[in-house]
Amino acid sequence: MNKVAQILVAASLALPSIASANDIIKKASAHSVKETMDKFETLVKSKGMDVFARVNHQKNAEGAKLKMNEAEVLIFGNPKGGTVLMNQDIAVSLDLPLRVAVYKAKDDKVWLSYHNPQGLKENYSVESAAKVMDTVEGALDKLTDAVTQ
User: Fold this and answer.
1) CA-to-CA distance for 57 and 108, rounded, in angstroms?
2) Does residue 14 carry a pLDDT above 80?
3) Distance between CA 115 and CA 21 in Å, rounded?
4) Fold topology of 19-148
5) How much is the pTM?
6) Inter-residue contact 58 to 70 (CB < 8 Å)
7) pLDDT per residue as tens digits for the range 36-91
8) Among residues 86, 68, 89, 88, which one has the least CA distance to residue 78?
């Protein structure tokens, strides 16, 4: 295979990952990783959602004698909304419950990131549950704004 063909193949393989990266919403936080995540977890619980797990990646790395910047993930959701989506297409369970990551980037800025729930429409057969996704998207936007400012 010549050099041009190799470049075209490499570019075509990269396209799906480039397109899927657009569904990640990133918001700068004015607080530390722990404070941002503590605030988010408290707010989620106050809204009646379930918290299934909180993963501290930095702590796990330290347990393996490795170093990394602070990074935490909260896995949370509301079975009322998630079940509606999973009844449309059970494969959506790969992306539910929802996840929010809070981390310190290499430039020492703290970010909160999550997948836009609207992306579920592209990957699963959940078109008839669009209202649920609109609600989830709006709620995530408000919740994450509230804890990052």
Assistant:
1) 16
2) no
3) 9
4) TATA-Binding Protein (3.30.310)
5) 0.82
6) yes
7) 999 999 999 999 999 999 999 999 999 999 999 999 999 999 998 889 889 989 99
8) 86
Name 110's Cβ contacts closer than 8 Å, sequence gap at least 6.
28, 29, 31, 32, 33, 36, 102, 103, 104
Amino acid of residue 92: V
- Model confidence at 7: pLDDT above 60: no
C-alpha–C-alpha distance, residues 121 and 133, integer Å: 8
- Measure Cα distances from 102 to 12, 43, 119 in Å: 31, 15, 20
Task: Judge whether residue 99 has pLDDT over 70.
Answer: yes
Write the CA distances from 16 to 46, 96, 118, 120, integer angstroms. 37, 21, 17, 15
At a CB cut-off of 8 Å and minimum separation 6, what does 46 contact?
A: none
Q: What strands, in cross-sheet order, belong to the sheet with 50-56?
A: 24-29, 110-115, 98-104, 71-77, 50-56
Compute the distance between CA of residue 64 and CA of residue 52 in angstroms, rounded to an integer. 24
| Rounded Cα distance, 125 and 107, in Å | 39
